[in-house]
Structures are given as structure tokens and as C-alpha cells.
Design brief:
Chain lengths: 97, 97
């Protein structure tokens, strides 16, 4: 079962992400990062690879794309906040850049 | 050369789009529509097909996706407003739904 991150799990899971550019969103228990690629093909190609993992894990980002820029927001609606799935998907996103 | 839509070309190109749910954005010479699909695979699959045409025509949307919903904004930065390319890409989007 998916659970909201506890005080104990939050640091170990989120700190490594904060170190590579992820941030908390003001007023929401959610993390965000803007990725900038070389061009649209690289940006959308990355989104496509992420999309396949998102569907496989049944955990989908909120994201927007303008040409070579992709802004991602991750949170878990089911628990109304961050879960381990968000950290997992964020790590996958980083691995695929 | 890409040109901003004139008063004469605006109606014929945009009216058919307004009839199928496109709207002007307040304060911008841009059009927007929110597409709702059955699920994420349908939403992202549609985005992928649109992306290939966008790249082929070198005219890219601003768009955001949350699970089965895709919100699109079209405008032409080069002319600081709507051009025939926006109408063309919007028509292609409609054809691929």
C-alpha cells in the first residue's frame, strides 16, 4: 500500500533529489524540477521514456513542455502528498537525462 | 515567411477551431484547448503523434499533461501572435484525436 512519507523516510529519500535541483512546491506536499534539453526532440524523447516507466508503475507526473523545457511536478494523489513512488520516479527521471 | 494572422484570414482559420472547443487566451494572441482522453496511454500516445508533426513543421505547442488530460496552447513566438501554422497544428491535433 502506498503511504505518505513519514518524517523518518523523508530525508533519506528527498535530500538526494534536492541536491540535484528538485524543490518543494510552496503550499503543496509535492516536488518539482525543470529540465532543459538541447532541443524539442531531446525533451520529448525523454518524456516518452519517462512516460513508459510512469505507466508501468502506475504513477504519473504532472508535467508541461515548451520546446526544449520540461517542468515536472510529482506528488501522490492517493495519499494527498509525497510517497516513495515520487522519489522513485524522480530518480528514474534523473537516470534517463 | 510566417506572418501574424490578418483580420481577413483570422475568421476563416480560427472559426472552425472555436466550433470544436478552442478558445482565445485572455491577454495573449494565442489559442487553447484541453483534451481529455480515456487514460494516460491514450493521452500520451496522442501527444507523441502530435510531437512528430510539430517537429516536422518546426512549430511546437506549449502543453501540459496530467494523467488523461492534455492542455495545449498554440501561438507563434516569431510573430508574437497567431499565424497560419497554429491553425494548421490545431487542425492536425483534432484529426488525430
Amino acid at each position: 500500500m502506498t503511504e505518505r512519507l513519514s518524517d523518518e523516510t523523508r530525508g533519506p529519500l528527498l535530500d538526494p533529489l534536492f541536491k540535484c535541483g528538485w524543490q518543494m512546491i510552496e503550499g503543496r506536499d509535492a516536488i518539482t524540477k525543470t529540465f532543459v534539453f538541447e532541443n524539442f526532440v531531446d525533451a520529448f524523447g525523454w518524456m516518452t521514456r519517462v512516460a513508459i516507466w510512469a505507466e508501468k508503475w502506475n504513477h504519473h507526473p504532472e508535467w508541461s513542455n515548451v520546446y526544449k523545457t520540461v517542468t515536472v511536478v510529482l506528488t501522490t494523489h492517493e495519499v494527498d502528498g509525497l510517497s516513495a513512488l515520487d522519489a522513485k520516479l524522480a530518480r528514474k527521471m534523473e537516470a534517463m537525462v
